[in-house]
Amino acid sequence: MKLECLLLLSWLWAAAGDDDVLPAKVRIRRASVVADNSKATAAQLHSIIDLPGCKDLQNYCTHLKSTDNLAMLECALSFSSSQLEALPDDCQHALWLQQRQLQLNSWVEHIFLPSYCADEQTKLLTCLNSVDLWSCLEDKRQQLPQSSGCQQQLRRAYTSLGQDYASIGDFYAACGGQVEQLKCGRMNIEHLPSMLSQLGTAQCLVAHASQSTMDINCKVAINAIEQQRGMLELFRVCSGDLTALCPQERAGSASSYKCLVRHKNDPALSSQCAAQITLRDQQMGKDYRVSHGLAKACKDDIKLHHCRRGVSEDKQVRLAQILLCLESVSKNGTKLAPECIVELDDHRRMLMTDFQLSPELLSDCADDIPKFCPDEHKSQLVNGLSSSGGEIIHCLMYHVRARRPQRRVTAQCQRGLETLIKASDAGEDWRVDPVLRRACKKVVDVACKDVEGGEARVMSCLIEHIGTTAMRPECEQALLIIEYFVARDFKLDPQLYKHCRDDAVKYCRAKHQWDDIQDVQMDPERGPMILPCLHRMAYSEDEHHTLRKDCFREVKRVMRQRAISVDLIPEVEDYCLSDLSQFCGELTEKGSEMECLQNRLEKLQPECRAVVTKYTEEEAANIEMNPVIMATCSEAMQKHCSEILNAGKDGGNMMDCLISHKNDADLNKGCRAAIEHFQIISLKSYHFTTKFKEACRPHVLRFCGASATKNEVVACLSEVMRNDTIRAQRHQIPKECRQQVKSQLYQQRESISLDPKLANVCKNELKQFCSDQNGPGQALECLIQKTSRLGKNCHHAIFMIKRSELGDSGTDYTLVNTCKEMIYKFCPNTESMQLLNCLKTYKDDPTFDQRCHLVVVNRMIEQNTDFRFNPTLQSACGKNIDRYCSNIVIQSQPNEELNGKVIKCLKEKFRQSKLDDKCAQEMIKILQEQALNYKLNPVLQHFCKSEIQELCKKYMDADEHGQVEECLKAAFLRKQLINRECQLEVATLIAEAKADIHVDPILEMACTVDLLRYCGNVASGNARKLDCLRRLLRESPKSLEPDCRDKLQKRIEMFRNADDTLALPLEDMGQLVQQVVASPARKFFLVILMSATGLVFLTGIFLGRATKRAMGLKNK
């Protein structure tokens, strides 16, 4: 067994040499130390065979012809371990000194060459100046004749040095003086290779030398020997395991040890071997030099970049510190040696595989491991395994993300995990973490097989596939655990750091170096929040403070990927832990936690509400931060909003574009639902609608300071705009804000859910009348059509909506969408608020769309129910309404229709020619429209409802050309109207036509030719054109067209009957009272009545007193 270990270790350290564990200054000092001590050593060294303690050499070395010191050393090196162990310490020390003498230039020059190579000395002295003395001498020896005595002596001396003399030379230089002083030289009893040949010597020094006085370089050399001794023990214990598990590996090589580490959790590995590996891992975590492969491959880089950070050579330096330093060098653009990069990758994987390689976790998480990871901890205690490969680390990281404080690891454990993630650079390579690698292997093979490795490209690909069918739950969980830490330090995202480092330093006070010497934890990167700062700069309007294009692209990518989970948004998650636990504990879908917080914005704690509000504002301005919309609407964005997508910067334009196409037939249901959900969220604050906020913020502060929700703000600004329009004054709100207000009103009309106040007050009516109206704008249209049957509160809400829609047609969703083609055809250049007026003009065109025609007529019917629904009428007749009809307005409810009462009042004044010209012209338009469609006359509909159904039923459904009104006029002429109110209303219609022929479109149409021929020069108004026709009828009736003559004669008869009807005496006291109350001069009548009553009362008093006096006189 001992022979096997010797062979094993000879391979293990053959190529390593001491240079990877001893400091360079030891090697530099070696020549001077040797030179200084050579003479003293030569003087102290006597003939070994004559020493009292070396008498056994005389017995064991009798076969040798010579008894000089070199011969005795040569003989002793052939001894077995038991023979060497039997030699006294002073004899061993003498032999050790002789072996050391062989490496002294002065000994070779002054003793060896003169004694054995006098003739060849001149040729051989040139080797004294070579880098490797004995390598040069060996070359010279091979050139000498075989019979030469010098040749034989050189061969004996070179053999006595041993194959590993070069590595031992460093130990001689570092510890030779103290070894001589304490007489600690010892032979290689166990025949160990390389520096382990000095194990006995080192153990003697440790036992007898004072640690405080021991030279630092000697301490380093002794530590290196102890580390190699540990490896010797490990391979001794694991020799069988190595053969069974790693047969392809050469015993003792660095790759053979790494192979054993990979199989550390293999059930086939013996517990003794696993314990040795665990012990070595712990030692490696405390001192990187235990890993000879890393120390050797990266020695130059470690020295060049000062990775020991001023720690003396005899002190331990943590593996994590070295890895962080080398990672920092690489991240900052400096090339490392290829073999060092290989070792770095291996050790990063090892860190994530075994938590015991991280002393911080062992100490800082000592209590958390058994508390939160009992199963993995039990496996470690029972089987001696750390876990099945990174499970304890993932378990701890999972509990860093826990919502409830009692389920979270301690702060110091979290800091230890942060250091581990940074040292292992787990965010750069998905294969570093064994748990992630196992969980995501199949996902990578399918979804990311064409992605180039390196710089976190595969990690980014995996994140992009969260929420897709390719992603697996176990992969998503493991991935989000790693990304939780990556999100909290922008330096852990290689692409982001590479492209944004300079901008982060410039604008966000980030550190210049990837790894901070003063603070290796993630703080203070978590404090200033570098990524949010970069995100703000990405959309800065200051041209002198903008990100570079590559950085801008990476910031957008990272913000998009972070949005999938609140865990990846530290600026939100850190403030909302309790709210997430309370409201959103069961939600796991992509983006669902943020939606949950947004839905419950009013219920969140103040700090959480503030950060969620800020995040939602940014989300509205940058669509990539909304993972649900990004996942469901990608096709829609490419198809309908490609210009915005290609422009790079969003600024809220993408959301506006998606909203405008929300109800397109090619949009999928998921995208439509995601858009509407964000619209609903945006109702909570006008700040959540970017374009609206930017355009209207100062005006909101000025006019609507008390408004809380966006709908309240919109309603407030809309009222200001409406009042400015009615008063015909300059708008106080600029065009950009007005357009945004209209856009918001338009969106509200599309869905009841976007108007929560309306949905609440009308919930019963929606359920009763409109439960099947689920299309865009249908529910609202249904409520409008059922106005007369609505409850009071719902009726008031609908009134306000109708007033808004009819005041600005651009906010009427049903009108705009139903009449889209007609608007494009007939009203392409018309302002949005005048669309209804324009469409009314063309509604009777033969090519006019029937669906649009129906909507336009319905809007006209609504307008005629209340003058407040007609801003043109309000503007034209405002003064006349105040003068003649103010009593009707005063007595009305503010949010209820007047049912045409004000228009009736204006019609009466129109008949009397008392209206201003502007108002009269507007009334003519209204009367013309009503004459053609009785539905536009609510008073007529009310008073003549039964007559219309009985006498004019055949004209009801298709009446658009005045048939119903003409039918009622004919019935009036035939005395078929029984209802007094209906008689009066029809008589009023006839009388209105008497005032101006334009009010009677049927008569006007029949007499168009005659009007042009005979009355073209007659001014309109005050019945002048009608008088012209009547004069022609009296003077030359045959000159008129037959149809005109017939209709004119009927109209004249109607005028007489109407005048008689309107002039009929009152039939009862009730009609008298009704007429007085309705009269504008009712106050005058009231004064006359009171005066008459008072006069009667005074007369009675006077006559009463006179009568009383007369009676008195009579009685006397």
TrEMBL record:
Compartments in which it is found: Membrane
One Pfam family in the UniProt entry: Cys_rich_FGFR
Chief localisation class: membrane
TM helices/strands, residue ranges: 1084-1104
Keyword field: Glycoprotein, Membrane, Repeat, Signal, Transmembrane, Transmembrane helix
Domain of life: Eukaryota
Cleaved signal peptide residues: 1-17
Membrane topology value: Single-pass type I membrane protein
PROSITE patterns the record matches: GLG1_C_RICH (PS51289)
InterPro entries from the UniProt entry: Cys-rich_GLG1_repeat (IPR001893), Cys-rich_GLG1_repeat_euk (IPR017873), GLG1 (IPR039728)
Cys-rich GLG repeat start and end residues: 335-404, 408-470, 603-666, 732-791, 914-976, 977-1037
Protein's name in the database: Golgi apparatus protein 1 isoform X2
The organism of origin for this protein: Drosophila arizonae
Organism phylogeny: Eukaryota, Metazoa, Ecdysozoa, Arthropoda, Hexapoda
